Fold each of these.
Amino acid sequence: MKKTSIITSFLVGATILLSPFQANAAEKTTLHYMPEDVYTENGEHWAYKQIDDFVSADIIDGTVIYEDDFPYVYVRPDASITRAEFTKILVYALDLKQNGTVTTFSDVKKNSWYESYVHIAYSHGIVTGYDNGTFKPNDKINRAEMASMIHRAFKDSITFPAAGTKAFSDVTKEFWAYNDITKVAGVGIINGYNNGTFKPKQPATRAEAITMMHGGLNKETKNLPTTDALIKVVHDYFSEYNTAINAKDFTSAYTAVQKYNTGSNFSFDFENTEMIEYLVSDGGNFSAKILSGPTSKVTQRSDRFAKVEVTNYTVQETTDDGYGSNYSLKMEYDGTYSLKKMPDGTWKIYNYYYNF
């Protein structure tokens, strides 16, 4: 379960005053990080965790449909994905920039939404196009093509086993993507089916694409951050933010939110800070007193992503609306904080889940 705060429930529906950081706030609200179609009749979609992780980290956005100014987000996990769409996900996830000369594919239209992503991926040797000079951006990408692109994208950051380490009955040595498929499968980034097949020519779904990219990112271990550095990010944020909130120094509170957060966690904490600012400006009061902790440990880390588990973190949150209604609750903030490496080399928190 994603995090909440007593202030969130206390002020839902309130009109928020403009903060001094309003102009710099992300256009995406917390609602943009809550896809509507990642649940089935039997519970969560099989790729829910990977999809939620990518949405929260701003790697994918999904399709946003507004009804009465209320955003509904759909990621269409079981729909097919085009070559251009997968290229965009790959470029976003790896934070790739143009590397050298731009090539031209006859069917990659100038100023199209995918033009820059295709050019960037080509400049890194990740996509090659076809012999006739086309890229076929709108064609559905199949599982073999996706495995090939993933292998090229991660060849310098993941140590792959020898070709053939993982075999599939329908992927022979003569198949053009044999090396790519068997190497990527060999490290567990992709999987086949229970009957021993891979179905290389089958169109891939968006969920499969996200899951494969997610797996690749978590296999990068050649440039790991230190555990101390990751924990410091989380603890420094707790300290700076709580100090600012208790001092009613909202400029510093917004600064802390921006300094240490991105994606879903940025939107949540920014909006939560706005609510507290509104409460105080309207004659109310809010305070957060740390009673214990936090105690933290790194439970997962790769070159670009990490998770920090926080335990024994208890905060006494007291709210007074200024009109005679007030209450105080002891909040347990034990949970897992997800972090990502930013383009400038810093690490920021992009998601948080309670531990049950």
Amino acid sequence: MKKKLLLFASLTVFLILMLTGCPSGPKSFTLTITTLPDAGIQIIVDLVNKVTPFSQKYQEGTTVEVQITSPQERDTSAFVGGDDTKYTFQQWNDANNTNPRNITVNSNIVHTAQMGVQYKVETSSNPAGAVVTGSGWHNKNANLTLTAPAMAGYTFSHWVVNGVNLESANPLVVAVNNPKNVVAHYTPDVQYTLTLITLPDLALDVRIDGTLYSSPKGMVIQGGASKQISVDTPQQKDISPWLTGIDARYTFANWDDTNTSNPRNVTINSDITYTAFMNAEYRLDVSASPTLWETGVYWNARGSLWEFDFSGDLGPYNFSHWLVNGQNLGSARPLELVVDKPYNIAAVFATQQPDYTLTVTTSPHTELNISIGGTNYLSPKSVVLSSGSSTQIGVTSPQNKDTSPHVAENDTRYTFQQWNDTNTQNPRDITLYSDMTYTAEMKLEYLVATFSSPAG
């Protein structure tokens, strides 16, 4: 009977459980933490370091403390050394900006932390020496303007950003969409020398980019630069110590490359010289000593042949010689000059005397064969002639002499070069109006004798 009652009770309990269901245990839910725009962000969950995305189940009602490490940095680029990306917590996806925050898990829940992102920008120059401003941390997707500054001795060439050549725009605008390594590349300046010369005379006024200089003028210029060159025209100068005041006048003719533009623009791509050819006129002053007439002033073109003579009653004077820029040019009349510079010309007169002494000598050695009026002498030789008389003088050329005891027979040869007044005629005719000395300048050659001892 007892067994029947126990079986009945067991069946009753089973039926009740089947009808009412078994009582449930504690519930659990999943908490997920993510970060935007990037994953892999360091977080702390209940004091334990984790990395997003983080997901874990908790019993219903559990409170979890979640903290986003902020700010935090990490290395994301091979082009920038060290940590190059910085993350700063902004807010949660539910607009809550509490960090750290406590989250009660009563359901499956996802919380996303919105992160502010900054990227590091590194700037440098190649070669080193230029400071390109703009390095440091910049907000993601910001536009950064970079300028390559001038660097002495170099010219900016191009930018290289993260290994990519971005050409030569300067300044450069860069979108900071990732860490940036920006290098401003420079090339060494190629420098050349520009030289300005004037001909036929130097020390004339020339200009480079409007600045006045005296020719010749050299200037070191960066390759490829454009310069304006010019020569002042007309211009006048005092170039001779023998005349007082302006004695030369110049007008521009052309450049040595036949260009006639003045001023002109030139591009410097090599060492180059520009020569300005000038039309030149020189002043010639003619006077008498003692003063027999007023000084005459003449302007003549360079290279022209100029002749001058005088006539009329000379009173108690006889013409002696021409003194040209301090040099005795003899007594030949008319005076002929090729105008290659300014000249101060004086016709020198001497008081008439019945007789004058004519001396003919030789240099560098004397006792050479000379002739005066057809008579042979050894130099030096002086003769007295009446005023105004003409005669012919000369020197034997070539002639040989024995001057050394060490060489048998004639060992020195003399050849006529010119007279002391630069006249090269030999013989030459002269007219005597004063005491005069004429020196024949000779070229020397020596005999070199060779022999053996004993002979053979």
